[in-house]
Task: structure prediction
Amino acid sequence: MKAVILAAGEGKRLRPFTETLPKVMLPVANKPVLEYVIDAVKKSGVTEVIIVVGYKKEVIMEHLKNYKNIKITYVTQDKQLGTAHALLQARNHIKGPFIVLSGDNIIDQKSILNLIKDKSEYSMLIKENPQPSKYGVVFIEKGKLKEIVEKPKEEVGKFISTGIYKLPKSIFAKIKELSSEGVYGISSVIQSIIDKGETINTIIADLWADIVYPWDLIHLNEAMIHKAPSSVSGVIEKGVIIKGGVSVGKDTVIHSGCYIVGPVVVGQGCEIGPNSCIFPSTTIGDNSVVHPFSQVRNSVVMNDAHIGSSSFIKNSIIGRGSIIENNFSSVDGNSTVEIEGEFKKLEKIGAMIGEDCNIGSNVVIEPGKIIGRKCKIAPLKRIIDNIPSNSKVM
Amino acid sequence: MCGIIGYVGFRDANKVLIDSLKRLEYRGYDSAGVSVIDKKQQLFKDVGEIDVFRKNLPNFKGDIGIGHTRWATHGGVTKDNAHPHLSSNKKIAVVHNGIIENYSKLRDNLKNKGYNFLSQTDSEVIAHLIEDNYKGNLEKAVFQALKKVNGYYALVVTCTDEPEKIVGARKDSPLVIGVGDNENFLASDITAFLKYTNRVIYLNDGETCVISKKDIILLDENNKPIEREENIINWELKDAEKSGFPHFMLKEIYDQSETVHHVIRGRISEIDRTIEFNENVEILLKNGIDSIDIVACGTSYYSGLVGKYLIEKLTGIPVNVELSSEYRYFGTRNESSLVIGVTQSGETLDTLAALREAKSSGCKILVITNVIGSTATRISDAYILTQSGPEIGVAATKTFTSQNLVLFLLALKIAKLKNKIGADELYKYILDLKELPRKVRQVLDQSSEIRDIAFQLKNSKSVFFIGRGINYPISLEGALKLKEISYVHAEGFAAGELKHGPFALLTKITPVIAIVTNDSTYDKMIANIGEVKARGPQVIAVAEENDTEIEKHADFVLRFPSNSNILSCIPIAILLQLLSYHVASLKGCSIDKPRNLAKSVTVE
Result:
């Protein structure tokens, strides 16, 4: 069986983290979400994946160049019109029944296996969700799908569509037909199939997780990090204490006096310490440096980041390539954050710093503030508002 | 250059050979051929690309055979001149990479003995010469034949009388053995058989080998058996595939976000503030260095010029950069000089000859290369690997960047050893190095903006690149990239030199690409742009992100990340690689296989 993975989207609500990365490449426990999806389909016996790429596709192709034991074919969706339109780009590579998944949702292998094994021509994975109004809510009768309602205004049901389907090849003709009427979403195509009398089996997924907002990266990291294999390579100097499940990548050096309590993932080529503390559930990306006497807890530090001495980072995201000087502090607490015109109430949230920022020494960021990409913040500043990308705080 | 492959084992030889030839295609590609033994030598040769060749290849049966992709040196591009060449009795088949210097004399002798020649190549001589020496044992015949040959070669030979074995021999041309289970390989390059095995044995100059399904026998220059250990190659076949990119060149340009880490990782420590190389390099550098000669060809030569600037600036040691092909015949030798050879493949013949020449003059040799186990690493006193993974695109991209970075690390190390820079200054450079990957990423992220500017150059007949200081060799390299892949005439100049001649060539339709960095050269570059503009051409400036002044002077501006420092040349070079790529892509050129060019030049 082949799998089509949709990975063309930009993820505007995840800015600034998606300004140079497609949404599917956001890291969870030091691994892009897309890789979780490919891992799961590979383990379910899929031998070939067709990845529909678009926004910043080179980043995906460059990252997956060393991915082993599965054939990867890329097709490009030039304009991000919708999920059905994205799927349509893969039509020339599909000969029989196939599965389609979204590259930005983490899914487990067992659920995919259940989907593949299902006898029905059309089947889909569904999942209970506490915030169904963000998704396509599904109505089910005796295990068959009755209706999908996209982002309903009222609370109407608790199960949502995961966007993962098993479909026959004939779906492409239907998508083409509907796209001429301006319908570009898979949900709408499925709805029209039901309306014509087809039956669609629903299967409840075991593990399914989505990233919608930047802070979801912290929560998903916390949820997934214990699944990362704990293996320690690199150099661990004398006097380092490591407790619990900790993974340290090759060419990394943990200097003397560090205290690390898992679950923690430290990538390759990092330098930590001396005398720094990393507490659960923290991921430090590849080639990052954490200078002496700093403390990082329940945070996501992405690749190539630099964290100065005596810094305190909690419930925060540090974007890749960001350079933070000494005595930085992220204050965590409650906050209301505005994203694309929506207001979200958050608890226990720290700072969210986009990629390639330069943050001077002794900067303090108040809870829930989002710093855009390539911002420069002068020393001794207290940041009380979101800062748009490419800004300077003098 | 020419690519050769031999296979013996349990698979369909035809399939293995064509697959390997496809992977060797980048070495040279005007014609190709294979021969597979099934009682007799089944031979097929043709002119043109491998994909067409694959379609026309008859379905030969057999599990032993040899193949060749040719890049013409002796004799034109014809079917007859393609390899393999057969002996007169049609029993022996030979593929050859190299040059037989005394071939016309050998040819006359063999003709007098009644041997019948079908091609104009020097290589065909070897087939007849082996037949002439054949008395029932192929390796002996090869050994005897090669005694009479002057020149250099990598050879792979089969004979229908001994249909279980392949004989290989090398002198000054690359040949490696791929060790499989119940199958073995011989090829000029590891990528040819990497799909089947990552275990290799390197053959040294003057040695012969005999491979069969189960056995590998190595023979020294006196035909005595010798033992040698296998090496495991860490490259993945996936490294040698395009993984979704339309061209290897574009993939390799994007690879740089990762390969810059490979150079730095394990060599510098931000916390400990140290730079470390392998033991041999450390010993060589601690010996005290008074002067340095860098020898290299092509893009590696331009990297040498970048190295000159870096080493002289940081250490004060004089550096002399020479083209290998000149150094080997001309110039003076100072035995106290450290000679640094820069070669991506480690097999560039001119550079190898220059290094041997330096060695025989008593100089210590340091090699910067991408290929572990290559000839260059074996004739050196110490070597530093660029660790870029295989580079398949003929136009060097990621290896240029890695070579420059290695030279920078080397300059820092020497400066530290000689106390030319203090601990704080060293730390500042280490931080610059650690920040480099993000600058590389930012340049790559601008690909579509660079493509927009490429439209300006698409129809140009001639393009000038100008820069000062370290950006002068970057201008030379920028021009070389454009020439190589887009066939646009391009020249790089030191910006101050324009008025001493090249101005005569400037017209309204000659775009000038000017590299402008915010350092001591800035005002001079602005003045040079003014001089150019006064003569009518369009100026495309490559300038810092926060340089707002430049827009007043240039027609178009391409941006690289700010904070000019000595390392800015690396993002600038990558920006120019993308520019050349997009020009070539817009023109529809054969980017990975530009006409008349070969990846590693293993002939003189």
